[in-house]
């Protein structure tokens, strides 16, 4: 490997020749990749030199690389063939979700809307809530919205779509061996329960009866009694050379047209033999008609006979027989192939329930069957939507779900455009139109259809979505109208209360010092926006201050991990020839997005890891375990992720490593990636008892605690294992504990510790056991647990031990214990926050200020500072402290506290609004419910 000094001694031609050779070598390696692998990506905003959502400009020729590279020609350049990012083409993506300029007011309005309408009309309101809350990125909150929408759904169509959506959010399709008709045992996701019309809020969260067959020949099909119509002789229906004898009165009773034919003025009324050869029904089909006319039941006829009955019923308007056939056929659809085969028949015969059953299979197989030609033909065109509408199966709900799946899979595809067009056609309410038009505008913008995108954004603004002004400004900028874009955003800042995204957007169109001022204002108003950090870092890279750029990126990565920031930090590390750090970050981002493409989609990230690994010392399996222990004990979650990723390359079937990966991802608040790791752990399980444990964790993390406990107990019945006992104890501890249940959890954790495991997990179990002992006021036993955990390098046990010292009235020892954690941990925000509880006010404020700097998403520091200001009777400042944080983190606790402050200031209207917004986030929060009741009464008195 050439050093930088050696490179400087080369002639210009030699340097150029060597660099061209390196580029060719890299290009040769890339040609070895499959084309589909190079193009395939799950990123909504993959970096692309022709894309607006990238980190900079990537020159495509050797000369431009030589001209624009910001670092000396060295070995690092072989890994940066497209150069470092540039600020002049670096933009944040336009967000695809609904964004309100006054989020709290919007939440409050939604809560009032839910409270005002009848239960069976609330389903779409909860869907609107889902659309509004999507910008918060909280999967559990979004899942609860979908569950509430399903709970209040009345019609079969809504139930089918929402239950499929809930399944999609849990990615059940990724579980090996799972069927599309599997469910978790709850009515909300049960495919059979979805096919039953009606609203029953009392049973919707009950366990379903999937193991029992629905009685499709029972109440639904027993529509004709054996006495119906009376006997009026025999009529013979001839079909070809065969005949079927039927009871004339029974056949006549099936419908008005048949009654007119057999008893009216038609010539058939006088005939005992009627030719049905050309009616379109077989002999077996006519016998089934006869059987139904006499019994009102359908026996186990094959689907082709049932389809004949359906067609016959439509031809002669036999509504009861049609309903019975429709219902019975719907119950027989058991896999996607049957659904794809039957959907056209169902649509042609307008069999509402059969269509719903077929759609259910299609939707529950997403995203796998999204691009199946039959599926596309069913959903995508205007004609397809009209066909679905004739049977009540086209809705905004359906196309909202489909378009979300398509956007996540491939934002820029033609399929995504078509589905969003159908979404726009189905939109009726203002929020629906705003969402459909805004998302369509975002996709058109990515596809560089600037005029059409601008038109969509303008219509979205007409529907009330102010944030779409960002889309208009971006399209104008792309069309060379920088000044108009600047004026548009500047006007928005003047008209509305300024927010971080407004200044972020204006910075794109500002010049000189104003640009960096806008970027800094964006961070001041919303420190959770990643673009300002990346922009400042790239400015530093352009000024050859690469170490400073890494420090700037670390400010963001310290509290919010994202693949694009990890990629930027990896680039900087490569430029410094710190390949070990670069590998760490790329491995971590591959954990978040396994198919990630580097350099604007030009190179697979895993391939770059392979190239970089040639320049670092390899680790043996033993080295990896040592590295993992070191990083785990130093609370270096990103480093731990990288080590586990490397271990999985050598041993991809190791379930326990996948499980550890999921724990780290949850700690980093990367819930989707964590669930993917859990599903992989489950799929690679080598034993039934192990598989049950991971299924239990999946259920627990998606809010199904009882089902998780059942999995744990089943696993223990097969094999006593650490993880099964730990899962059961963890799930039980989630509830309110009395002395008896606490003792039982202690017993479970002790049983877990007796089972084989490694120090990493035993440290966690000891830590949890210590917490239970503290809750039971057994402080000495708790201290023993924490000390034992620390002996095996479970560093977080310092926090538990500090709590024990505090409860023993030794605040100094507690403070010192937390100081040890701060010294050891790389992620220190929570440690500073906790240490603040063990010192005086001035020192506490200092620690909490540091916690906010390290992690602005932590809400306790804001609440503490606000409470202190309120105690000092600085009421306005206390409210402002909370308001500043709520603007980018609308947290339940902060809204509740601000509502209480407003109440104490006799500002009951604002107190009411805050409590309503908080209840929109959690309608069962008791403290807020009490506050809401009080302030509502006072607000009414003052009106």
UniProtKB/TrEMBL annotation:
Name this polypeptide is given: Ethylene-overproduction protein 1
TPR repeats: 763-796
PANTHER family in the record: ETO1-LIKE PROTEIN 2 (PTHR44203:SF3), ETO1-RELATED (PTHR44203)
Keywords of this entry: Coiled coil, TPR repeat
Gene Ontology BP term (one): negative regulation of ethylene-activated signaling pathway
Organism: Anisodus acutangulus
SMART domains the UniProt entry points to: TPR
Family annotation (InterPro entries): ETO1-like (IPR044631), SKP1/BTB/POZ_sf (IPR011333), TPR-like_helical_dom_sf (IPR011990), TPR_rpt (IPR019734)
